[in-house]
Amino acid sequence: MGTAHEPVAARPGLTVGHRYELRALLGTGGMAQVWSATDQSLGRVVAVKLLHPHLVNDASSVERFRREAVAVAALSHPNIVAVFDTLFGNGVEAIVMEYVDGGTLRSALDDRGTITQNETVQLGIKLASALAHAHAHGVIHRDIKPANILITREGVPKLTDFGIAKGSAETDLTVVGTIMGTPSYLAPEQVQNRPVDRRADLYSLCVVLYEALAGRPPFVGEEPTAIALARLHEDPPPLRQLVPSVDAALAAVLMRGLERSADRRFQSAADLEAALRAPAAAFDTRFDTAVDTAVDDRTDSDPDSDPDTVVTREVDDDGAVDDLGVSASTRDRSRRQPVAQA
Question: Mind listing the domains of the chain with CATH numbers?
Answer without folding.
Answer: 15-100 (3.30.200.20), 102-280 (1.10.510.10)
